[in-house]
DNA sequence: GCCACGGGCGAGAGCGCTCTCGGATCAACG
DNA sequence: CGTTGATCCGAGAGCGCTCTCGCCCGTGGC
């Protein structure tokens, strides 16, 4: 961590251009009120010296940091097992850099981390926070609210009654689920089962609600709780086959579980989609395209979701409320 | 981006504790030379006021930032299609937070981004950089070197003759490949083929070299170039079957391509592992465990790799050279 | 031809911290 | 009891920047 060559200061640029610091500052920050010939001289001095403003000094007085914290609360490894996170980050990153903001990444796993994050946010190092709070009992939101920073959540938060006063961006999980179910019905299927995700996450709840929107409160035996993992999908599928051998369609709350379900179906000699049609959710690429048969699934635009989160955060005027992005059914061979 | 409540300053703490700013600073920064009763009074004042040091002011004078840039050069979507990146990030994050450093994430896609990153690094916002430079003609390393920041690369850089003067952390790609090949030979296989990765990446080159270490310069017809994608794996597999229908084993340079190869083999009626044994690389979980049959593959400890990169960067004394992490063959059903 | 006015620029204070340096205090020693 | 030396603490300068304030000069109106 040895320090670099001493970098030129505003002072130095001012001296070279034969003006005052104030003038250089004005030019550098693009404020008007500096006549052209002078401004030009300053600009030349700036790049002759290779001047780059010292962000620390600037923040000290402006109290702005041009930096945003992205907080990922992930005690489990699930998020890391799929590429969601990376896509979202990319969307966020694009939007932030377009507005000259930096992205400070905070990954948390346990309570200690939460305290640390709380301190960091309270420390006023960043201008706002993007939060992926994935589980229902997560204490993080409170910590963040206490820090008093502008915040946008990724995914509908479970607290707060679902809306009002809290900014979030989410996919239309419920609508996507409805599309999936309607597609199965449109295929002439009659006994539809649903494998839910981990129900402590709002995405899972919303997808289940979508299923019920169309199916009514149908046979509760046709709904089995999974956990978003392939193993969970397998277990749920086995259970469903046992309970209701005549089922002819399955809607799984994500592709990973759908993949698990496919294996169990094959194991039981059911042909997909002939005997049983299967629809997933996410369009998680390395999985959805590689299963046998490839999955029909509900795609969400993850990168766009990230981008919009960042945009809402930077756009100070926006009302804090929910923003729901559309989903799209992608037809492949499984249904 | 409305600003928060004015936070207490050193001054305020000093006043409350009835000491000078200097003393508070000493206590806060854990320097000795402050007698216990006084120190205690200061500490009480600190948490009564909820004082958190202003990092900007601190950086201004210390020229340290306690922040590290993580630069991911990724013009393609490949990295985002697998969870590598996230795991590595997690390892890095753990190590950095253990040393009270922040992680500033810079994702780059094109030339413009490179210029921006160069400016950012030159701007002296961070104390060092971790770089994932994935392709051979990437201009990023030069930009970074010019910024004069301590840097550690993820994966062996292709330039610089492979070692000497540049710090990097990599998996033992070559050794892992040798293990994979020896395992196949140990199974009694005789006609081994290799599907390479994209050869503009050192990981692909090293794995190919490992294959050749064991096989000699064997039949060049038994080596087909892939690109690390499932589609590439399929194409390569088809080519290999055409060239040499009698092959009885395939080593693919990653699991994604191995999955593609499995599909083509099944399509051609070859049973795995009975007719053809298949070994992958990476142990990329959602894929390796879910293929049919599950993949035998070479595992690398990605998270540890990230952790070590961070550790080397923070550990100023370390010699800048390469650090190679061991790999491990994971046996599943495919070989 | 004088005064009021406004726009362009510089002087200077101050953001919150660290760190050097010198003054005060106290124990110990002659 | 005076002196030395070590130790603890405070005063103050200064990091590089922004931003307010006021001076100066040029212009236009009466």
UniProtKB/TrEMBL annotation, chains A, B:
Ranges where the HTH lacI-type domain occurs: 8-62
Domain of life: Bacteria
Single GO MF annotation: DNA binding
Keyword vocabulary terms for this entry: DNA-binding, Transcription, Transcription regulation
One matching Pfam family: Peripla_BP_3
PANTHER family attached to this UniProt entry: HTH-TYPE TRANSCRIPTIONAL REGULATOR GALS (PTHR30146:SF109), LACI-RELATED TRANSCRIPTIONAL REPRESSOR (PTHR30146)
Protein name from the UniProt record: LacI family DNA-binding transcriptional regulator
Organism field: Streptomyces edwardsiae
């Amino acid at each position: 961590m040895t320090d670099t060559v001493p970098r030129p200061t505003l002072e130095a640029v001012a001296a070279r251009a034969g003006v005052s610091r104030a003038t250089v500052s004005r030019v550098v920050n693009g404020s008007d009120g500096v006549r052209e010939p002078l401004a030009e001289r300053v600009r030349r001095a700036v790049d002759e010296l290779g001047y780059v403003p010292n962000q620390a000094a600037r923040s000290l007085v402006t109290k702005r940091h041009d930096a945003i914290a992205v907080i990922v609360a992930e005690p489990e490894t699930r998020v890391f097992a799929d590429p969601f996170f990376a896509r979202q980050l990319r969307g966020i990153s694009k939007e932030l850099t377009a507005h000259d903001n930096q992205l400070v990444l905070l990954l948390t796993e346990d309570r200690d981390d939460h305290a640390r994050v709380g301190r960091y946010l309270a420390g006023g190092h960043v201008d706002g926070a993007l939060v992926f709070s994935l589980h229902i009992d997560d204490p993080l939101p409170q910590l963040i609210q206490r820090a008093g920073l502008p915040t946008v959540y990724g995914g509908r938060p479970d607290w707060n009654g679902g809306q009002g006063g809290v900014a979030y961006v989410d996919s239309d999980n419920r609508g996507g689920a409805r599309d999936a179910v309607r597609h199965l019905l449109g295929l002439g299927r009659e006994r539809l089962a649903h494998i839910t995700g981990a129900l402590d996450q709002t995405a899972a709840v919303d997808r289940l609600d979508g299923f019920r929107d169309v199916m009514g409160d149908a046979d509760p035996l046709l709904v089995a709780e999974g956990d978003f993992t392939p193993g969970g999908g397998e277990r749920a599928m086995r259970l469903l086959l046992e309970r209701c051998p005549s089922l002819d369609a399955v809607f799984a709350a994500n592709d990973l579980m759908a993949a698990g379900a496919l294996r169990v179906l094959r194991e039981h000699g059911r042909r997909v989609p002939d005997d049983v049609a299967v629809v997933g959710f996410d369009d998680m690429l390395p999985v959805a395209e590689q299963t046998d048969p490839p999955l029909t699934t509900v795609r969400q635009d993850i990168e766009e979701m990230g981008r919009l989160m960042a945009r809402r955060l930077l756009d100070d005027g926006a009302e804090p409320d929910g923003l729901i992005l559309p989903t799209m059914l992608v037809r492949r061979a499984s249904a």
